[in-house]
Amino acid sequence: MLNCALDEGKLLSGDMTVKLFSWDGQQPYRYGWNRASIRANRTMAFHHGGINGYTASYLKLLDQEIAVIVLSNVSTMLTSTLAGVIVNALGEDSLL
């Protein structure tokens, strides 16, 4: 639901959503989101975080309608690693 709300402009204005997810290839961090080029000339936006024993990762492939959100109530679980494994499993070739 979060990803759909962002994509459909229901959570933020269209202008803010463009600012949030656009990337010129030079400034990798903006508005709390990191950006990275991954294989096959794809761009990914991602945010990882944790507090009080909970961790979360949100990866969004910007050129596709794909988002992976991993939530955990175990502070030692690296949600970023699991999210990367899931993204890699989505294609024949490794994306990350």
From TrEMBL:
Name the InterPro entries for this protein. Beta-lactam/transpept-like (IPR012338)
Task: Classify the source by domain of life.
Answer: Bacteria
> Per its record, how is this protein called by name?
Beta-lactamase
Question: Which species is this UniProt entry from?
Answer: Paenibacillus vortex V453
Q: What is the lineage of its organism?
A: Bacteria, Bacillati, Bacillota, Bacilli, Bacillales
